[in-house]
Amino acid sequence: MIAILLGAPGVGKGTQAALAAETHGYTHMSTGELLRQEVAEDTELGKSADIFMSRGDLVPDDVMVQMVAEHISNFPSEKVLLLDGFPRTIAQAEALDEACTSGAIGLSLYFTAPETVLTDRLLARGRQDDTHEVIAHRLGVYAKATEPLVKHYADQGLLREIKSDRAVEDIQVDVLSIVSGVLNQSNLA
Ligand code: AP5
Ligand code: MG
Q: For burial by CB atoms within 10 Å, which of 88, 115, 133, 140 has the most?
């Protein structure tokens, strides 16, 4: 089962996915982390992705779809894949829908917090793309390109909102209970 983690930069997608993966054996796939690895290894992909990432722009859809398709094609359906940072555009979501067998996407966890909270968290973290200017741009790109996915998954009955201006542990309780609830349902079906 695929669980899509949706939400703005800094909302805690990576934090929540890493915790759930560690305690429950779920697979955590972060497209941002995969890209940062390519950048660190100075591969051709990394070199071209770095230009987009350092500005806070999205890496082109075809590159991202190919990257994810490789990882999900052989993923066992009884296991849980936490997809963190993908899809991020309607085109990516449609490509994912097409690549998945019906029912493979079990849910989309939609994390929400006020923008001021997001900005403060990112500035405190201080990743290379966590500067005032790039954060503001990433939030704008999110609103324009990614927020339409909320409706995309709500229309499919897959969206579950989690208010994320709370303690990490409290959010995690909700994440685990929603994921295991959907997992149990799909096992019964
Ligand atoms: P990506 O790495 O996905 O970055 P992002 O979406 O901007 O999100 P973040 O990783 O910054 O936030 P998060 O929600 O994971 O929060 P986190 O848990 O880290 O993407 C980077 C770039 O790669 C993109 O800009 C783009 O260029 C490219 N890219 C990636 N995927 C792509 C795609 N599909 N298509 C195109 N381009 C793509 O938490 C943030 C901080 O807050 C941490 O310090 C954490 O400790 C803290 N924190 C978390 N939760 C809490 C809490 N509850 N209370 C207090 N602090 C908290
Ligand atoms: Mg992240």
A: 88
Q: Which domains does the chain have, with CATH numbers?
A: 2-166 (3.40.50.300)
Taking the CA of residue 13 as centre, how many other CA atoms within 13 Å lie in the half-sphere pointing to its CB?
A: 27
Q: What is the DSSP string of 67-110?
A: HHHHHHTT--TTS-EEEES---SHHHHHHHHHHSPTT-EEEEEE
Ligand 1 pocket, residues with Cβ under 6 angstroms? 7, 9-15, 31-32, 35, 52-53, 56-59, 64, 85-86, 88, 92, 121-122, 125, 138, 164, 167-168, 171
For the stretch 125-138, pLDDT in tens is 999 999 999 999 99
CA-based nearest residue to 57, from 90, 33, 32: 32
Distance from C-alpha of 54 to C-alpha of 28, rounded to nearest angstrom: 23
Sign of CA dihedral 20, 25, 29, 32: positive
